[in-house]
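#struct-pred
JK: can someone run the complex with alpha-L-arabinofuranose? inputs below
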Amino acid sequence: MKRRTFLKAALAAGIGAPARAADAEIEIRPAEPGPTVSPHLYGHFIEHLGGVIYDGIWVGTGSRIANIQGLRRQFVEDMKALGAPNIRWPGGCFADMYHWRDGIGPRQRRPRTNNFWQRDLPKEIDGTESNEFGTHEFLQLCELTGAEPYLAANVGSGSPREFHDWATYCNAPPGLTTLAREREANGRREPFRVKYWGVGNESWGCGGNFKPGEYATLYRRFVTQFPAYYLEPYFIAAGPSGSREDGHLDWTRGFFEGMIGHSRRIWPHGWALHYYTRPRRTPNASEDSLERWYDILAAGARMESLIEDHWRIMGEFDPEHRVKLVVDEWGVWQPRADVVGPRYLFSQVGNLRDALHAALTLDIFNRHADKIDMANIAQTINCIHSLFAAREDRFARTPTFYVFQLYRGHLGGRRIPLRIQAPDLRVSFGKQAAPLFALAGSASMRDGRCCLTLVSPSADEDLFASLGAAGAAILEARASVLTHTDRNAANSLESPETVKPAGLAVTVSGAKAQLRIPKHSVVALEIRTG
Ligand code: AHR
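RT: done, structure tokens with the ligand placed:
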């Protein structure tokens, strides 16, 4: 990588600090209007896959692991402390083979069924589904953590009736229908009030292998007779896979073509986009290599153009943009790891690189807060891009957990414009070289304070930054940083506290702030302007 060319503009010197040129000029515009950063952009996804539900979340009521009604206590407490806004369940691919009635009633009498993910487990491991964790257990988890439930219905192998019955079971007032009485017999009198309903998952793939027009027909069948009288639903239709080389734009176009001429009443409110980041240019490089580091971060930044491209196509059919994007699966999918244990499918090393990826993705969501209603990292615990790892009585927070913690200041804020001037990095992938942002971020205002978050991907250079506010003076600024001297540092069950946030010095003088942003770091500032 070539050394950055420093910007020429000199900064006003801080008190007692030597004057020097800034590598990055940052400007926020606190007074400008902007969309609300929905807390739902910081949502979660859990599936009956490997060790996500069983052991990760559900340890059982008789467990020696600290639990609240069978739910791992530490997980519940951390999710609550994080302000987790929503949780999507039960899949993923599992959703399109899940029959909700298997997961209600006395646990010991629930059937043992197949699980989609059995196919990926070694033969000697029993991957069948006990159904111990079902509708009541999931909705209990949501209530304990304060998260809104988002249920994904089975379109691939279920029926509209099964879908509508599930909604009636969850939402009908006490005693009103036979299903509401059954819910009460199962211990829950009051309705659960589930608003978010996914209509299938990846219907172009594991959710049924449909063509977009076929799926549009099914989507209409599933929603038209939905019992909306108990609670106005928010429907999320199964959208494209951004991981495809071509961005899967034809899926978006094909689905909306299938909606033309049909009542607006049944159009989806959300259009689900999935995007997993996998190495694009370095298939043979090692996971710890510098090439892989930049490849993953550059590939993660592609989220921005995916949002813009699908949004543009949606606008051709829906010029007022009443349908919003819901990025309900995203994250870095590392090569097959199963690090927590062989049964813990796709459990990964929770490292600093993936935390930077999560941060740059959340910044992209904030910047496009007008287009996205919800997003869900995949998956919250013991899986692809997780916030937690857990095995029996051991528990760890990954560096990505700390990103969600550092970004809390954005939730519910008003997004404001942010301008960053810093020459791009030039990074190499074997024989190829490409530009990569040297600093990216997002800014929002809440309760008179600005939350500014920044990602510095450089593997070898700190960045000296000058921060100003258009039309205002910076009066006070506090910063936290997530980094480590070793860019490959990770948190694991054996070493859960290797990567943690720390305070970062900021100098405020002459209406501006200056700070040194460490290489390979995520920085969050809280700023007061006047
Ligand atoms: O998150 C793992 C899987 O990835 C999900 O089940 C599926 O929707 C996607 O392909």
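RT: quick notes.
Residues 47, 91-93, 201-202, 329, 378-379, 384 surround alpha-L-arabinofuranose (CB under 6 Å).
The first strand starts at residue 24 and ends at 28.
JK: thanks, will look after standup
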